[in-house]
Amino acid sequence: MTLPLTPLLGVYVGRPSRLPDGRRSAIIKQRVEAPLQLTLTGLQGDKVADARIHGGPEMAVHHYPAEHFARWASHFPEIADALVPGSIGENLSAHGLTEENVHIGDVFRWGEAEMEVCQPRMPCIKINSRYGVEGLAEVIMKAGRCGWYLRVLRPGEVRPDQPLEHMARPSGSVSLATFWEVQNAHRPGIERLQAIADTPALSPKWQRKFQQRIAWLQRNGG
Questions:
Q1: Quick one: which of 33, 73, 176, 188 has the most CB atoms within 10 Å?
Q2: Which domain holds residue 215?
Q3: 83 with 161, same domain?
Q4: Angstrom distances, CA of residue 211 to CA of 14, 33, 76, 215, 218
Q5: Cβ-contact 63, 91 below 8 angstroms
Q6: 70-116 residue pLDDT tens
Q7: Which has the closest alpha carbon to 41: 151, 196, 169, 133?
Q8: What is the mean pLDDT of residues 134-141?
Q9: What is the pLDDT of residue 21?
Q10: 117: helix, strand or coil
Q11: Do residue 28 and residue 116 come from a single domain?
Q12: 123 and 146 in contact (C-beta within 8 Å)?
C-alpha cells in the first residue's frame, strides 16, 4: 500500500525553555519557513532538554496528526484556543497521516532526506504543563493518538513546502493504531505482542519492552 503525497502544514523546531510550572522542556517550538538540514539526530536548530529520555537517532523527528487537536479541544474546551498544530512539541504537522494508516517501518522521502517510522511518542506529563491542564497526556495515551517518531535513513536538505512522499512499507508491518491497541490491552495475546516485538523497524527500546511483557505473561499463564 502506498499513501498519497502529504503536504505539510508546518515544520517546527525549538530549544529548551521554562514552562509555567518551572519545568524545563523543548516542547514549545517555533514554525520555520526556510530550508534546513535534517541530520541523523534531527532538524537543524531543534534541541532537547533532557537527552537521557529525549532525542537521538530513534527520536529524530516527531510527527503529530493535525486532526487530533479538535478531539482534545472537545475534551478540554478551556484550552481549545491553545490546541493548534505545532503546539504539542511536534516537528512536523499534516492532515491525512494518522495512527490508523501509518505503519511502523513506513519510509517517507522529504526533500533530499528519507525517514522511517520507528516508534510512537510516549506522552509525558510535560504536555500537561505546557497547556496548564491536568490529564491531557493521560487521555492522549489512552486513546493511542500520540503521534510517532521517525529515524533518519538519509540526511539532507528539507523545506517546509516539500510534501512527504511514502516510499515503502515492509511486508507484515503493523499500524500504530494496532500497536496501541495491543500496548493498552490489560492482557494482550502473546502472539500479537510477539508480532510487534519482531518488527525490524521498531526501536530497540520498545522491542525490549514487548519482550519483557511476553516473558511476564509466559511466567504467569499467558
A1: 176
A2: 177-219
A3: yes
A4: 34, 42, 36, 6, 10
A5: yes
A6: 999 999 999 999 999 999 999 999 999 999 999 999 999 999 999 99
A7: 151
A8: 96
A9: 84
A10: strand
A11: yes
A12: yes
